[in-house]
Amino acid sequence: MTKRRGGALAFALLCGVVLVTAATSSAKTTARPSWCGPKKISLGLTDGFGGNSWRLVTTASARAEAAKCPSVTSLTYADGQGNTQKAISDIQGMVAKGINALVVFPDAGKAILPALRSAYKAGVVTVPYRVTPGGKAGVDYNVFVDTPFAQAGENWGRWIKKVLPNGGNVLMLSGPKGNSQGVDENKGLHKILDPGGKYKFIGEQPFEVTNWDPALSQKVLSADIAKYPKIDVIVSDFGPSLVGALGEFKKSGRKIPAMATSDGNVLGCYWKKNVAANPTFKLFTVSTQNDHARLAIDYAVAVATGGKKPASPHFPSLVFEDSTTGKPNPVECRPTLPGDIYLSAQLPAAAQAKLVKK
Amino acid sequence: LLSRGLTTVLVACVGLFVASLLFASSSLSKGVLLTMLPFAAALAIASLGQTLVVMQGGIDLSIAGGLSLYVVILTHYPNGENSRLLPAVGIAFLAAVGAGLLNGFLIGRMRLNPIVATLGTNALLYGAVFWYTGGIPRTTTARLASLGGGTWLGIPAPVYFAVVTTIAVTVVVKLTSVGRRFEGVGANETAARTAGIRVKRHRTSAYVWAQILYCLAAVMHAGIVNQPTSHEGDNYLLPSVAAVVLGGTSLLGGRGNLVATALAALFLSQLDQFVLALGVSYAARQLVQAAALAVGVAIYTVNWRGLVQRLRSRRPASMAPT
């Protein structure tokens, strides 16, 4: 029984299927997951910045995951509110309180490393995830549960090759200048598209800087539309923030081109509303990875409680929607629910809506 | 009628548009203009508010928190429902009056330094933003989006609002007795007090009207940006001060060049699109904007004539045999 549930979980993590929704609800009644050992622990979760819907859903996902394990007797959460100083003292405070395991979203990167190291040295199971804090596993913390962002770039690249087999102009937009996520995604994109030399990257390289800010996205995109008479595909690592800017194509009397990005309810609904008038608007999304937090929790709990560690500390980039094939999912839209929920997450849409509507 | 500020900004604007035509003509395409003009209009309205404060020898750093708060009220309260838009606008304007009164009380009555006081108010307003939203953005209602993003007779709707607001504020400040007293207080407080003008009341009113204008700018901005974040006001802090300075209003207070400020907002917005169209890197774009502010300050504060004279008088001296 235990083995079967563990297998189902691994399958869900790999494929990003909604399957686990059922597993989550029945978790309390069925056997404990394999990563949940017998030792009782208190668990801490700290965020460098918790103030947006993505973070809310991610934190709630982490809580839901921890709730699956009865050995976790308490879960304490702290939000650094974008303040590095607070993020550090949150970690120190949790260690002082005597928690046994700590999962950290180290937004401030290397600045958090000393705090992680002292937690680790104090005997707390320390698991940073998603943003690299530098340092070394086994020296500064137990393990860094990362996600290879280049994989997302490769997923986008493969889809672009499929919908534009004869090549085309690729425009990539990302957040702040030089952010490692955008840089890595761009590398993955180049790895797939460069051989053959049919694809041309336009705009600032490696990507147009938008700071993930909708107003700046709008200005940048309108300038690019005017400058480049032919944009065949837009690549963006935060699709929902681009929804307001896509209207720029209409203002210039052009059709919205194909788009490879990450998912969000607002984007899916925008696509459904505009695809009829914009036949070139094909949409491909990778999961926005709220469930990355679940893998980090699994790891920390497994080490602290004496459970079985997950097979890999890397959270993969998973394809979510493809408007051209409908596989693994057709583009999804829940018009009655808020725009800023993520249908690729395991957490049910209604639960997410409740979170963000609070 | 043509003040030094207005002449300077007019020349700068014409120069910039000629440069745009010659070096980056894509920045003058219809699509880009339709994007740039609404942002310019919102910035112009916000900068008029900043001008009123600067005319009183102050500066309003709470523009960032204020504008952010009004934007989130306008998007969160209706939560997509058109029927709740008007009440939201009402609430936003009430909040604006409240924030303005707080600034006015701290600076006009308690005589706090404007930088310190408005920085504190800014933190308070941002606190309100995060308390109200949890940092989560909402989509603008369709009605507001059609106002901010719509066009009347081919011209973006916010432009009409900006023009009417500029005219109205200019008429009140320049042509009414209230406005003359307002300018008088900013130019010379002691003289104004001696003349029997209520200095505190005028000073407070500057901060209140500033917030009301920020709120109007927020209405435009929320309509232009379909899914505004909870910190949209940050985009206005430096540009609003830059527009005031480029418009030639002295940071020491006194006479305000309102039309020049509005035109400077247009200049700054087009400058944005111009450098974007040139295709220079993000870093270079930031430098150009900072340089525009520095040049603006230099034009008005450096005593160019004196500098030239000093250089001239020094040259023969150094060449003279010793």
Class derived from helix and strand content of chain B: mainly alpha
Number of helices of chain A: 12
Helix proportion range of chain A: 25-40%
Please give the number of β-strands of chain B. Answer: 2
* Average residue-wise pLDDT of chain B: 90
Indicate the low-confidence ranges of chain A by residue numbers.
9-28
Strand order of the largest sheet of chain B: 1-2
Could you give the distance between the termini of chain B?
51 Å
Describe the 3D structure.
The complex is a heterodimer of chains A (358) and B (322). With 358 residues, chain A is of the alpha/beta class. Chain A has twelve helices and eleven strands. In chain A, the strands form two sheets. In chain A, strands 5, 6, 7, 8, 9, 10 and 11 form a seven-stranded mixed β-sheet that branches. A four-stranded parallel β-sheet of chain A has the order 2-1-3-4, with helices on both faces. In chain A, helix 4 (84-97) packs parallel to helix 5 and helix 6 (149-163) packs parallel to helix 7 (180-193). Residues 9-28 of chain A have low confidence and may be disordered. With 322 residues, chain B is an all-alpha fold. Helices cover 76% and strands 1% of the residues of chain B. Chain B has helices at residues 4-23, 30-55, 63-76, 85-109, 114-133, 142-149, 157-175, 177-187, 189-194, 199-224, 234-246, 258-278, 282-301, 304-319; strands at residues 151-152, 155-156. In chain B, strands 1-2 form a two-stranded antiparallel sheet. The longest helix of chain B has 26 residues, at 30-55. Chain B is globular, with a radius of gyration of 21 Å. Classes of the chains: A alpha/beta (358), B mainly alpha (322).
Notable characteristics:
heterodimer, A: 358 residues, alpha/beta, seven-stranded mixed sheet, four-stranded parallel sheet, 11 strands, 39% helix, elongated, B: 322 residues, mainly alpha, two-stranded antiparallel sheet, 14 helices, 2 strands, globular
